[in-house]
Amino acid sequence: MAILEVKNLEVFYGVIQAIKGISFEVNPGEIIALIGANGAGKTTTLQTITGLIPSKAGQIIYEGQDITKIPGHKLVSMGIAHVPEGRRVFAGLTVLQNLYLGAYTRKDKKEMEDTLEMIYERFPRLKERRDQLSGTLSGGEQQMLAMGRALMSHPKLIVLDEPSMGLSPIYVNEIFDIIQKINQDDGVTVLLVEQNAKKALSIADRAYVLETGKIALSGDAQALMNDDSVKKAYLSE
Ligand code: ATP
């Protein structure tokens, strides 16, 4: 059974239809990429799944349950964590304070401390800088913090919006290596939105190509990487 199923989803901003009936699924253990140009509807899709924007039609099913109308904070305790576009760390709080904020749904303090240790293993830099104000971190470190904060809720599904945005190539590689480790070693299912299609397809199992609110193409990431139309539209340097 799919961990997440999106069925005929439609989303509007006022009279403008941003999402025009898309359907896709994410199976447990997969890394799924949604790729597409600026304005294709990638962020809107993620924000609708994580309960930030209401849908007009369609269904979102998570672990067999209809979550279409469930608000975002409840979804976190159900195991869905969202790493938003632009990271959104709390600049005036320390790294550790930001991480603790991600754990607001946790009840068992010991388990939460174990998760924190796991996150410090994944992101040694966050451990080094745990008492530093988050606003003083580099973009790449802020991305790590946003991911660490999401992982503090011990999610089954992590939804990542443009993790590579604005980062230097070295950081991009580091962030994508960590995404793979979170998936392979920690067993977290990943739904990833990226404008950097090449990077996203290089770690994804499958991908969906969004064009003006519709799914234009889908398939194995490797096959899409070799597809001429994808190459031409999304992979040229
Ligand atoms: P980007 O990579 O730029 O974030 P995207 O693929 O994530 O692009 P969305 O941000 O989801 O695309 O935008 C989809 C469409 O909805 C675009 O046409 C955009 O202009 C429109 N849109 C997005 N947010 C709003 C909003 N708050 N109000 C009105 N229209 C919006």
TrEMBL record:
Domain ABC transporter: 4-237
Membrane spanning residue stretches: none
Keyword Hydrolase belongs to the record: no
Keyword S-adenosyl-L-methionine appears in the UniProt entry: no
Domain of life according to the entry: Bacteria
Keywords annotated in UniProt: Amino-acid transport, ATP-binding, Nucleotide-binding, Transport
Gene Ontology MF terms in the entry: ATP binding; ATP hydrolysis activity; branched-chain amino acid transmembrane transporter activity
GO biological process, one term: L-amino acid transport
PROSITE patterns in the cross-refs: ABC_TRANSPORTER_1, ABC_TRANSPORTER_2
Gene3D superfamilies: P-loop containing nucleotide triphosphate hydrolases
InterPro entries according to UniProt: AAA+_ATPase, ABC_branched_ATPase_LivF/BraG, ABC_transporter-like_ATP-bd, ABC_transporter-like_CS, BCAA_Transport_ATP-bd_LivF, P-loop_NTPase
A Pfam family recorded for this sequence: ABC_tran
PANTHER family membership: BRANCHED-CHAIN AMINO ACID TRANSPORT SYSTEM,ATP-BINDING PROTEIN (PTHR43820:SF3), HIGH-AFFINITY BRANCHED-CHAIN AMINO ACID TRANSPORT ATP-BINDING PROTEIN LIVF (PTHR43820)
Family note: Belongs to the ABC transporter superfamily.
Protein name: ABC transporter ATP-binding protein
Organism in which the protein naturally occurs: Brotaphodocola catenula
